[in-house]
Amino acid sequence: MLTPADDSAASEILLSMRGIDKRFPGVEALRGVDLDLERGQVLALVGENGAGKSTLIKVLAGAHLLDAGTIRINGEEPRMTSPVDAQRAGIAVIYQEFNLVPSLSAAENIFLGQERSTLGFIRRRGERRRALDLFRRLGVAVDPGARCRDLSVAQAQVVEISKALLLDARIIVMDEPSAALSPREVEGLFGVIRELKAQGLGIIYVSHRLDEVFAIADRVLVLRDGVRVDCCGVGEMTRAELIERMVGRKLENEFPPRRGEVGEERLVVRRLRRGNAVRDVSFAVRRGEVLGVTGLVGGGRTETARLIFGADEREAGTIELDGKTLRIHDPREAIRSGICLLTEDRKAQGLVLGLSARENFSLASLRRLSRWGFVRARRENASWRRFVDSLRIKVAGPRQPVRQLSGGNQQKVVLSRWLERNCEVILFDEPTRGIDVGAKYEIYLLIRDLAAQGKSIVMISSELPEVLGMADRILVMHQGRVTGEITDVDHATQEEILRLAVG
The domain spanning residue 216 has which CATH number? Predict the structure, then answer.
């Protein structure tokens, strides 16, 4: 464990970005943005999708050439024309999608491209010792010989951070580092960040999770529409004030109020089972109800949703809808029965990124929208425009590729697909992952509206404030089983949920 840097070192400006401009055809992504990062400091970078966070990171990483402005590191202005230049300057970016080779070991990934050899033979034993030293420096136990495909997300993150330390990085940018972590793993990540702070490194922490911003950051920089709105200590503003600066308007409540009455049972699941992933899971969802399902990562939440949707084959159990036993063996039968799933990974499993937003919308309704094997464009357009208006989907036109939309608008495209099919049971798996706070509120409103229309909603989420703010009732899962049910949500606490989540 290294000792913290002294006060004089901690107050030094490590990184200074001044007047950063970046333009793309038809878009001014950054306008005169200033950023300062001190040694031993965590600077949170927040803003809605499209605010310019990713562009600013890519400028710092050398992936985008700036159009105007300066970047100084330790008072010097290095050449920054490529990612290699940024690495040489001591900058490392850890993206949400890790840059690891799954078939190689942790140590091999750390030293990839940096191998040392003797007479043409790589010094594997030395690499292993050095990797162990890096892991000890971070205070985390990882087997250097373990294949990266076998590591947990938290362990893979430690490998990425170790790669940065090997390159003697002084500035580490973490882009949505907690997106796939459990609460316990997030605490482990925070421990690593505190250790890096103590060693005098500067951390830029990009996140949509405001609880984490207040828990780990020293200062917070807010971007909106490519412009710096504010930068101050985290103790100098409340959560509500931070949200207002991010979205440019007041949100009276982070979660819309519950409305409508919960009716009779509609979806009934009995003794659902698939290996150790899902073990005798039973529950019911009522008409107009939002049932929250939470727990630690690996608790069986997503696996349960996939069994109900027919994406995986169940070994045992029954599924009933409105008193009728369903025979669901694949997603097509689930959709015909009125059950749909908005997947956890919408880009990989929910969307065809090479198609337009409109084409993605109509995928599940091609038979109804087609005649003699040809899609009736007028009818497809009319249906699409109805949802663009009702869901407030921000899209340049019907042919705009869906990959160009923000995360919130991509989620609305997937939702519009299922609403066109008039599904009665909607399974949301991490509905706001990677979505900014303003777009989150719109998704929450949509979920509330669907429940008010009598739809039955199952909302799987790792964000405990989201579950407590949105659910009428909460199920907690651990190691494939339901370990608890909370009916008095208004008086429930995160601590109560976590006790159930650890079994």
Answer: 3.40.50.300
